Structures are given as structure tokens and as C-alpha cells.
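As a warm-up, study this chain.
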Amino acid sequence: MDPITLIPTALLAYLLGSVPFGLVMARVFGLGDIRKIGSGNIGATNVLRTGNKPAAALTLIGDAGKGAVAVLIAREVAGESAAGIAGLFAMLGHCQSVFLGFRGGKGVATFLGTLLALSFPVGLAACATWAAVAAVFRISSLSAIVAALLAPVWALIFYHWHGAVLVALMTVLILVKHRENIARLRAGTEPKIGARR
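Now compare it with the structure written out below.
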């Protein structure tokens, strides 16, 4: 990709990824500022802690959808390389949103949506990994961490090696955003899915 294509692709994907659907849905459903509820995270897991399942579901769809849409539009307009860049920057936008003072969510739903759009088999394998770990342990963060760690492997098997490198960069972002969760997992204090804080 040449810079004339790369820069607008990255910027537009970042702006799309920056839309904080959790914050929007919490306000639409009258739940207040989601950043002051539960863990303070803007993602679907924390929205679910309010007890409002429709709001959580719409947050999940919105966060996953913005990653997928960024990838699909970039692929259609500028090709496969642009699609990968768009996915990475959509994730970055979610995690460091310009609309939230460069704060944001942990990127899991956007990560999975991005993977599904980049390579459906990779995304499906990552979602299945998340679901399997969640079914056994009922801990969202652990499910996300395991899914993220295995995603580059799935990309190497089902996609291609430079796609696996891109997915590995996304995995690093997921791990950085989950460093507090990792500490709580080690301490045995991480809450389970659906638990209120």
C-alpha cells in the first residue's frame, strides 16, 4: 500500500473504531454513564453487569460490527492489505478512543468482528475458543486472553503468515488492555460473567 491509501484508511478505520457503543447504549437505555458502573469498562461485559441484556447485546453487535465494517469497506475500496490495516486501526480506535480522551474498551468484540471479516475461518475459530473457555470457566477476560493468544495460530493455519503477524499485533493490544485482569486472575479475584460489581 502506498501512503496515499494507507493514511486515509488507517484514519477512517480509527475514527469508526472510536465510536463507544457501550457508552451510547447505556445512555439510550437510561443506565447512566457506563464508565461509573462495575469495572468502568465500556464493553459489552460491563454493560451486562447492569442487568440489561438488550443493551449488552447491542453493544456487542456494535463493537464487533465496527471492526468488521472497517475491514470490509477497506477491502472493497483498496484491497486485502488495506483490510488488515483497517482492522488493526479500528481496534486501536476502540481501545484508545479520540471521543473519550484516548481511553476506551479492551477491544475483544472489535477483535473478533475484525477477525471474522478478515478471514471467516479464523474468526470462527477465535469465537469458538472464547466460547469454550467461557463455558468452562465463566470468566470473560480469561476467555478473551486465551482466544487472543490462539488467534495468530488460527491465522497461520487458515489465513496466511503476514496475516498472522497482523493478528499477533492485535493480540499484543488485547493483552496490554487486560493487564489488570491478568493480575486479578492470578489473585483469584476476577469476577465471572454476569456478576455485578
